[in-house]
Amino acid sequence: IKAGKPVLNWARRHKIALGIARGLAYLHTGLDDPITHANVRSKNVLVDDFFVARITDFALDKLMIPSIADEMVALAKADGYKAPELQRMKKCNSRTDVYAFGILLLEILIGKKPGKNGRSGEYVDLPSMVKVAVLEETTMEVFDVELLKGIRSPMEDGLVQALKLAMGCCAPVASVRPSMEEVVRQLEENRPRNRSALYSPTETRSGSITPF
């Protein structure tokens, strides 16, 4: 979170995540010719001053020659968004989009970018990080500290449910992942209780759009 930008509390991050999920669900099921995004990652999400998310760079795989598409899949692996099955089939589909969204939702909840860290060279595996925390019974410690501010009950505010949903999206077996329509339904059912936390009276709105 850069200086001068509003703090991304849970209400705001939830709105962003739900907006991304709705956009992907529309691409998958809302068109006569369904579209696979094929490049879901935080770099391809724009957020305006009202925390409305807009996904960009979708369906690029339809425009690319196979060699370039393969490079894009390799980049997804380096960035930590690549579904396991892409190792063998190298063709994105709605289920690989769901996996990448799960990683993105973990990024929103944990506050860390997946994949290779440019400074240390360390590879950040977000699903593994959550699994270790669950085994060690330190699940609450994986959440970004800014996310927990103002939260009385992570369970009642939908944080724990969102974490479970993200891990479900990241399931190694593609067939057990939820559809994006199901993801939208679950996020809508587990909204933060304090919706007033979306905005602060001291913040101004210019209508600008910035990268997430």
Query: What would you report as the Rg, rounded to the nearest angstrom?
Result: 17 Å
Q: Give the helix tally.
A: 7
Helicity level, as a percent range? 40-55%
Ends: how far apart? 9 Å
Q: What's the CATH H-level homologous superfamily?
A: Transferase(Phosphotransferase) domain 1
Taking pLDDT < 50 over at least 5 consecutive residues as the criterion, the unreliable ranges are: none
Defining traits:
Transferase(Phosphotransferase), domain 1, 41% helix, 212 residues, 7 helices, globular, three-stranded antiparallel beta sheet, single chain, mainly alpha, two-stranded antiparallel sheet
Any overview of this molecule?
The protein is mainly α. It has a single domain (10-193), classed as Transferase(Phosphotransferase) domain 1 (Transferase(Phosphotransferase), domain 1). The protein is 41% helix and 7% strand. The strands form two sheets. A three-stranded antiparallel sheet has the order 2-1-5. The protein has a two-stranded antiparallel ribbon with strand order 3-4. It is globular and about 45 Å long. The N and C termini lie close together (9 Å).
Structure summarized in a few sentences:
By secondary structure, the chain is mainly α.
